[in-house]
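[audit] Reproducing an earlier prediction to check determinism. Same input, same settings, fresh worker. If the tokens differ from the archived copy the diff job will pick it up downstream; this log only records the rerun itself.
[audit] input (418 residues):
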Amino acid sequence: MYKDFNPSLRTIMTPGPVEVEPRVLRAMAAPILGQFDPEFTHIMNETMEMIRRVFQTKNKWAFPVDGTSRAGIEAVLCSIIEPGDRVLVPIYGRFGYLLTEIAERYGAEVINIETEWGQVFEPSAVIKEIQRTKPKIVAMVHGETSTGCMQPLQEIGEACREFDVIFVVDAVASIGGTEVKVDEWKIDAAIGGTQKCLSIPSGMAPITFNSRVESILLQRKKIEKGLADPHMPQYGQTRVIRSNYFDLSQLMDYWSPTRLNHHTEATSMLYALREGLRIVLEEGLENRFSRHRLHERALIQGILAMGLELYGNHAYKLPVVTCICVPEGVDGESVRSMLLHDFDIEIASSFGPLKGKIWRIGTMGYSCRKKNVLHVLGALEGVLIRHGVKVHPGQAVQAALDVYQNKEHTAIYPQGFL
């Protein structure tokens, strides 16, 4: 006999997924509408407009891809990559390798440059490689959750535009938690995620792309239908978008006023996305970014006061992920296990060369609030003492409280965050 479904209530302080905003959960329980019901298509239109506002863009095309964040990345890359295209992917953490793998699966000639994990690229280094290799596409991660670093993008975007290179950005970890300025940074296509700073369950990937990307999609669609100009150099090449589900040219038809059927929309997830975006805009982007920075500061001051060391280049820290060096001789997984089982708190380890060497604490979306920061600091201190680590007892929570008490009178917060 199966037991009643009753998942444990956790304090989730990982870099994703995070705790879901209660109003989003309520929205997901709303009645189902048909996907061509005018009330539902109105919800679709509202969601597109809100995606534009959160990405800070005036792009015509802004809609979600049904699937996790990886689905959005694959949809963009598979729709613009043709076999033999040269794609430059600068790697400074795990998710640069993901961009590389997806591009290679669709026949791209991928060129990588790499830097040490915990660092980011000087924009000039990427621009130099663009000039040397002359790629069709540059694909980069904005916020690398595996290392807690954030790559400056504006100079790279300007160079891509100057050299007529398509600039694709994975903004999965940063959208809704820190600035993502699609138009100002000259990003041609950006992919977000729901399960991080937007505080929505995983299952949709909001994307946006501009007319430069649209022209590629429309040309490929003409080739597929045999309508392209036969005198163009690319005529006769393999131009069909290999994926049906991730074909952005078909998704454009689905999200346009014609509403050509492509798939059955994930109704409850769209409700969740609309409500999550509405909450972001209700808070206001600047207030939201300020809130994430405040709780980041409180967490950092607590970690340092405890006597622990931060990992990575602090000048390029991702504001919504804090990486902590595991003290020498400590079993990092044992600490995480005790936090989970004795305090119902989940934090993360990392990947590859950093596995077992750092802990990653996410302060994202609804998880990014005073109660959670104080709770994780107090619990981590207690667990480390149990593991024989010499910390400064009582200092972590006090240091975080100092941050909050010094800042409360000047910051604006939505109800429930402080």
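[audit] rerun output stored. Observation attached for the diff report: Residues 200 and 387 are 35 Å apart (CA to CA).
[audit] end
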